[in-house]
Design a protein that fits this description.
By secondary structure, the chain is of the alpha/beta class. Helices cover 46% and strands 12% of the residues.
Length: 356
């Protein structure tokens, strides 16, 4: 099946009331594991590639690994998404590489560390949107800075994250400003700041309304009911994965992620894309540690990778089922980016795509 744009996927998710996990990928094993889960559940797949992943594997390798996945899993529509683009060049180069969606994170400057002004965010996001829509590619913007409400700090991961103390107003997306931002930038989806953050150490206790502001989701949805919302930093950091990691020599302090029930609540209020990375890393490295500890004579990397892939596939299957995307792949016929470009040019994408 052809690649699909994020916009079409999210329109379909809105029409049928489900959410989509978006998994970050760096290597062949992660891609295979995610795609096996998508095939097993008949779910569309969003494969996200960060700047760090592009640097780690190289654009040619990433491009060809995903092309191989398309060939191996022809029944699954795949959205290839640039995660946290830090500037126009990052996003335009991703589009030129064949990505069908890009995120322009204009909440931070090009150094991916310094918060920007609202005007700067609007300007850079609008510039990327113009390039993307002309080519039929979707764009996700971000308003507000990801970070912890209890500490007032952003979490550094993969070269991305605000440095220093942040004001609470920076850490929560303003619903009224969101209306203005979407009107000015014409983004297809909006990532919002609500207390989630990257990495494993999101919360020091099971989150409640003091540290996870689900009210922001509901308030933005009430003003923009047709807008597709995105939750970043939404790994759940399951206790069983922490326990597995630590049982075989790991030293991960007790931590809490975003509870599944809170994500499902978000989906009821317009969240259509849920970013997950840490859970995959923890599942893989926990499997590595188990093999290294229980089979000390093993030196074949495949004997480490196979159980690691099985752990990731199991996790991804569960998220596809929990978020409701299971069973939806066969109901979607991807619209080519050339046709999407024509729709953007004609202004017909002011309404959702309902063909399936």
């Amino acid at each position: 099946m052809a690649r699909i744009t994020l916009r079409q996927l999210l329109d379909h998710a809105a029409e049928y009331g489900y959410g989509l996990p978006a998994f970050n990928v760096n290597n062949m094993e992660q891609i295979l594991a995610i795609m096996r889960a998508a095939q097993a559940t008949d779910s569309p797949a969003i494969l996200q590639v960060s700047r760090g992943a592009r640097s780690y594997a190289g654009d040619a390798m990433v491009r060809n690994m995903i092309a191989a996945a398309e060939e191996m899993f022809p029944a699954i529509p795949i959205c290839v998404h640039q995660d946290h683009g830090n500037g126009v060049a990052t996003c335009t180069s991703a589009i030129d590489q064949g990505y069908t969606s890009v995120m322009m994170d204009g909440s931070l400057a090009e150094d991916a560390k310094t918060p920007t002004s609202y005007a700067e965010n609007v300007a850079v996001t609008t510039a990327v949107r113009a390039y993307a829509h002309t080519r039929g590619v979707s764009i996700e913007g971000e308003l507000g800075v990801l970070g912890r409400l209890d500490t007032g700090t952003g979490e550094q991961e993969d070269g991305h994250g605000a440095v220093g103390k942040l004001d609470r107003s920076q850490l929560l997306t303003d619903p009224d400003q969101a209306v203005d931002f979407v009107q000015l930038t014409q983004v297809d989806a909006l990532a919002i700041a609500m207390g989630t953050s990257h990495g494993a150490y999101k919360f020091s206790r099971k989150p409640d309304s003091e540290v996870l502001a689900m009210s922001v989701v509901k308030e933005i949805h009430s003003r923009l009911p047709d807008l597709h919302l995105v939750m970043h930093g939404s790994s759940s950091v399951p206790q069983e994965l922490q326990d597995e990691f630590n049982a075989y020599g790991g030293q991960l302090p007790q931590t809490w992620g975003v509870p599944i029930e809170e994500i499902l609540e978000g989906i009821r209020y317009g969240v259509r894309k849920v970013n997950i990375d840490t859970d995959l890393r923890l599942a893989m490295t926990g499997a590595f540690r188990k093999v290294a500890s229980t089979r000390t004579d093993e030196f074949d990397p495949r004997k480490f990778m196979i159980p690691a892939m099985e752990a990731v596939t199991s996790l991804c299957r569960l998220r596809y089922e929990q978020f409701g995307s299971a069973g939806k792949a066969a109901r979607i016929t991807p619209v080519p980016t050339s046709a999407m470009a024509a729709r953007y040019a004609a202004g017909s994408l002011d309404q959702r795509i309902t063909t399936s």
